[in-house]
Design goal:
The chain is built from 5 helices and 4 strands. It has about 130 residues and is an alpha+beta fold. The protein folds into 2 domains: about 70 residues, Arc Repressor Mutant, subunit A (Orthogonal Bundle); about 40 residues, no CATH class. Strand 3 and strand 4 form a beta hairpin. About 10% of the residues are buried.
Length: about 130
Amino acid sequence: MDEKVFDEIKELLRNNDFLFLDEFCAKFNLKRNEAKATLKKCWLFRRIETCPECKREIIVTFHRPQKKFCCVQHKKRYYNRFRSKTKTGICLNCGKEFEQYSFRNSKFCSISCANLYRHHHKKEDEEK
């Protein structure tokens, strides 16, 4: 591939919020393996993720490394589906049981408990 194509790819990755791998392959007339190799050469490519909602592959760039979903609607639909599902956790500070969403991994029942725990351990570290 020549420099002009690389510049076009870099510009496309900079401007787009997300890009599907299939669309990228079609736009530049590449096979999947060739597309992945080309993206790695551009240095803006981070990895290829699969949208948990629609199972399409998304190109994740360094500009948006936390990207997990292909669009906002899929993100909302995914989290709303699990919103009603809860699990029980035990607070590290007070030992009380609390309910939390299934996709969270909270260690404390409240912000005040987290602050007390942090403050208590900070004093212990200073004493040592």
